[in-house]
Structures are given as structure tokens and as C-alpha cells.
Structure to design on (284 residues):
């Protein structure tokens, strides 16, 4: 089944001209029993605790050019198109997380203005009788750096995807 | 050319960061069972403390700290990340922690600041 994931990845990445290596692992499949829906909260937020501008910087000419609307339009379609039909399966989702993160990174690279470093975090989990909370904090320059995230849920799995963009002078 | 850190260049040290993270997690949810009322507080504390400790190291990095706390119920969870950055100076580390009733996964990403 994860051949399908590999094919999708290879196809999408070929278009972008980048390479991704997906390693395969031996995994014992987990049994999935009653798929009850319950509350799964995924929160991703950022806060800046304070500046630590001790290091005197020389006047930066480029300072005003950094601007980032929340990581442009988040590649929502990528996530939903990959996961719409899928049922949670350990092997498949293992590959899926890696694949989606590579693909989202490639797409964001295409959209983005230069001088930005990109971090993409993808989580895929099974829906069972559990609760989950995700949080994040960032120490960065609020005027230049930003993030964007998206969550997706179907009857057997949920997925969160977050993209952070960090300006580099 | 030697592959040492020169006086000016610093690259991220995943080992140091993971020690910081482990201590923070232990301090906050060390001996406790999962509680839905408190999990919000926990994630916020873990992330904040980790960030504060990292900043204390005084290195020229921007940080992103991500934390996920999940109740143990037999469900599976997969996480992956993909980063576009300068591999000589930037880095990340992920710490997985668990106790009897919950899992905690904390990821730290450090992006170098140009000085």
C-alpha cells in the first residue's frame, strides 16, 4: 500500500525537480477497533517571550524588505488530496508523513520569496479514545517571521500540518 | 580546512538541546498521569520553559519549539518534518518521552541568525 504513497511522491516531486528518498521499514500493523470520534484538539500557536538583542548589529540595509503574509496560501490541497480517502495504517502513514512533508516543502519553496528558511511539520495520528494537545512557541522576529497551519480529519485518522517561515538576512 | 567551530561560527548542538528538553519535560509532567484539564497548561509550560532555557545558552539562534502530548490508548501517531535551511549552522532535535498514561514529543528547531 505504501507503494501508492511512493508513486504519488515520485510523481509530484518529479515535477518540481527535487529528490526525496523514502526509506521503508518493517512495521507490525496495529489493530484498529471501534473508530469512535472524540475530541482531539490540535493547537498551534506562537508567542515571543522577549527580545534578546544584546548583540550589537551593524546597520542592516535589507531590514525593511522582510515581509511575510502568513506563509502565503498554505498548500491545503496537498494535505487533503493525499489523505481524503485513506484509512489509518501504520506502514502507509509512516510513509505518508514523510511524503507530505517533502511535498509541502517543495510547494512552499515554489511560492516563497527568497531569503526565507522553511520548516514543515506533519503529524498523522489514528483516531481512538484519546485526547491530544499540540503547542508550539517560537523565538524570532515577529515582523519577518510567521507560520501557517492546517488540520484535517476523516473517520479513522487526523492530521496536522504546520509551515514556519524564518527570515534570513 | 579543519572542521572545527571557529570562534565566531556556532552550529546547533542537538545533544545539549535534548538534555534541556528532557529536564523540562521531567520537571513538568515527570510523575503525573494524563489529565485533560491540565494538558493545556502542560504543553504551554513545557514549550515556554524549554524556550527560556535555550535562550539562556546565549547562542545566536531563532528557535521553534513544538510539543505534542497524547494520551495512551493504543492509537498510533506519526510525525515528520522537512526543513529548508543551511545545514552547516541550523539544526533540530526531537525528544520522545512517555510514562504510564501519556506520550510527549518535543521538537526543537534552531535557525541561525546572521551576525
Amino acid at each position: 500500500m505504501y507503494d501508492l504513497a511512493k508513486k504519488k511522491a515520485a510523481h509530484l516531486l518529479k515535477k518540481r525537480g527535487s529528490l526525496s528518498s523514502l526509506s521503508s521499514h518493517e512495521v507490525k500493523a496495529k489493530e484498529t477497533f471501534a473508530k469512535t470520534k472524540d475530541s482531539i484538539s490540535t493547537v498551534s500557536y506562537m508567542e515571543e517571550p522577549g527580545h534578546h538583542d544584546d548583540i550589537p548589529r551593524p546597520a542592516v540595509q535589507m531590514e525593511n524588505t522582510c515581509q511575510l503574509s502568513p506563509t502565503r496560501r498554505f498548500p491545503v490541497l496537498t494535505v487533503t488530496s493525499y489523505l481524503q480517502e485513506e484509512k489509518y495504517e501504520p506502514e502507509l502513514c509512516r510513509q505518508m508523513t514523510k511524503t507530505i512533508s517533502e511535498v509541502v516543502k517543495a510547494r512552499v519553496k515554489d511560492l516563497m520569496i527568497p531569503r526565507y528558511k522553511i520548516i514543515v511539520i506533519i503529524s498523522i495520528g489514528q483516531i481512538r479514545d484519546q485526547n491530544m494537545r499540540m503547542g508550539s512557541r517560537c523565538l524570532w522576529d515577529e515582523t519577518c517571521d510567521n507560520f501557517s497551519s492546517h488540520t484535517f480529519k476523516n473517520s479513522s485518522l487526523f492530521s496536522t500540518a504546520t509551515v514556519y517561515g524564518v527570515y534570513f538576512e | 580546512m579543519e572542521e572545527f567551530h571557529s570562534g565566531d561560527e556556532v552550529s546547533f548542538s542537538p545533544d545539549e538541546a535534548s538534555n534541556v528538553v528532557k529536564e523540562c519535560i521531567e520537571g513538568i509532567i515527570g510523575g503525573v498521569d494524563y489529565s485533560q484539564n491540565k494538558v493545556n497548561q502542560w504543553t504551554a509550560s513545557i514549550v515556554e520553559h524549554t524556550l527560556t532555557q535555550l535562550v539562556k545558552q546565549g547562542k545566536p539562534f531563532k528557535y521553534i519549539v513544538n510539543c505534542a502530548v497524547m494520551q495512551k490508548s493504543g492509537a498510533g501517531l506519526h510525525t515528520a518534518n522537512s526543513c529548508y535551511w543551511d545545514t552547516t549552522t541550523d539544526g533540530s532535535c526531537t525528544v520522545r518521552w512517555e510514562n504510564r498514561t501519556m506520550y510527549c514529543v518535543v521538537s526543537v528547531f534552531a535557525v541561525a541568525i546572521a551576525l
About this structure: The beta strands of chain A are 116-126, 132-139, 146-153, 157-167.
